[in-house]
Amino acid sequence: MTIISPAIETLFNDVDRDTASRLVALLLPHALLAFESPAPKQAWTEPAYQGKRAFLRCTQDQALPLAVQDMFVQRSGLDWIVNDVDAGHESYISRPSEVCEAVVGFAASF
């Protein structure tokens, strides 16, 4: 099992402290097997998704720094629409409006 520590600094670095503390209390350990098992083929690799793949980079992410996020996109070998949000790992909590705008913008471009 794996536990993210320090969780606030890693996952909730841009979330207010009260909310972050409540969220940390809800975290559960994650099975290491999830990181070590082969993953099935992702649906977004199918040709039907060409021009419809989007990735929202979180520029303040402490769990997955920008270099790692960029590596995910690059190693996929596919074309992605990439936008940034000035947020940490849990951007949907700290910047919900910006994330919503980005998702709507992605969808509009499809």
Q: Major sheet: size, sense and barrel closure?
A: 2 strands, parallel
Structural class: mainly alpha
Low-confidence stretches: none
Strand-residue proportion: 5-15%
- Helicity range: 40-55%
Secondary-structure element pattern, one letter each: HHHEHEHH
C-alpha geometry: globular
DSSP, total strands: 2
Q: Specify Rg, calculated over alpha carbons.
A: 16 Å
> What is the first-to-last residue Cα distance?
39 Å
Mean of residue pLDDT?
A: 96
Number of helices: 6
The largest sheet has its strands arranged as: 1-2
Q: Would you mind describing this structure in some detail?
A:
The protein has helices at residues 7-11, 17-26, 33-36, 66-76, 91-94, 96-109; strands spanning 54-58, 81-85. By secondary structure, it is mainly alpha-helical. The protein has a two-stranded parallel ribbon. Strand 1 (54-58), helix 4 and strand 2 (81-85) form a beta-alpha-beta unit. The mean pLDDT is 96.
Give the structure's gist in a few sentences.
This protein is mainly alpha-helical. The protein has six helices and two strands.
